[in-house]
Amino acid sequence: MPTAAKIKQPLLAAALLGALAAPLLAQAEVRYSVQVITDMGANMGNTALAANGDIAGAAASDTVPYYQNSIFFYTAATRHVATFSASGWHLSSGEMNDNGVLVGTMRNQAGTTRGFVYDHGAVNYLADGTTANDINNAGVIAGSAGNKAATFANGTATLLSNSSGSAGAINNSGTVAGSIGDNGFVSQNGSINIISAGAVNHPMPFALSSDGALAGADRIDDGNGEPSAWMKVNGQLTYIPGLHKFSGGYALNEALGINALHQVVGYGLTADYTSHGFLYENGQTFDLNSLVDPSLKLEIFSAGGIDDRGQIVATACESLFSYSCSVIKLTPLSAVPEPETYALFMAGLGAVGLAARRRRQRAVVSTLA
Q: Residues of the signal sequence (predicted)?
């Protein structure tokens, strides 16, 4: 397991040396306007944000069986939300390209997986036994075929390795990142480079920027699989301080998105094990809840992506223990705000319930991805 020294926490000011064991978080200020995209229920899956402002994700309410959830798709140009589902299939959304084309994976109760492509209302499917996790502007898909990392072009799979694994991200230059066994990898021009190997930390990349920067989380071999978020820029691996420093140095956070400015978003647990979305930039970690108007009374539980303009897609609720969440978009106040910026009025998800669901969702994604 990582030691407290390994998680590179910011230095505490002398006046704060006696303050608990939590890392010093960056000074907060209201930096984002909030736009409600859609209220889709409790079990929010991965959310994706395209360069054109389109947003998508997977969701199901607690009253809907696990294998009957839906994918929602928000079109920024028309401000319209569409959904689709497939009877008997659980849908997991992947990522979108700059044209708003979404990929994802469906799984039935027999355990069969099938990648899909959702192109503004038209749905196409890959073969059984495939997953689809990301797509670039050229239409090349990163995913898996037969539990092996693969890319897909025009429906044809190209295996990246003969070992078990999955390709989780691809950018417009064709760089691919993912996992092979217990290790992360980056593939350029067909050449596989392992990010790290060893019995303790297994860095798994979950996001890839347009300039090749990576973000993800360690899988710590302590029997609990507690994560520590990291980013890798120009070959330099940097661990991201958590919202709270747990015993043993655990950060208990995961990085889910990174942009060309090398801003990273994801989620991390607080001292009371409530999940909060975070933003990491310039060596500092921010709780996203501290960067929006406090009068909105938001509970931002996780941030799924950030674009090169700094816009963030996130999941938020208003109160605990009522098991319903919604998708929001955060726009930097220095940019032109969306005209539909207003308070979020929704029910929330409790810390224990959300943490359990997030772990379940990550397990599903790990299996599919």
A: 1-28
Average pLDDT, the chain: 78
Contact predicate 174/160, CB 8 Å: no
Give me 140's structure tokens: 């090349």
Give the C-alpha separation, 166 to 144, whole Å. Answer: 5
- Using alpha carbons only, give the angle 66, 278, 305 rounded to the nearest 5 degrees: 60
Rounded Cα distance between 111 and 129, Å, is: 9
Q: Which helix (H) or strand (E) holds 258?
A: strand 253-258
What SS3 string covers 159-184?
EEEEEEEEEEEECCCCCEEEEECCEE
Contact 348, 319 (CB under 8 A): yes
* DSSP annotation string for 269-296: E-TTS-EEEEEEETTEEEEGGGGS-GGG
Q: What is the CATH number of domain 22-368?
A: 2.120.10.30
Answer yes or no: is pLDDT of 170 > 80. yes
Return the residue matching tokens 């590179």: 8
- What is the reported pTM? 0.79
pLDDT band at 62 (very low <50, low <70, confident <90, very high): low
Domain residue ranges in the chain: 22-368
Contacts of 128 (CB under 8 A, 6+ apart): 112, 113, 114
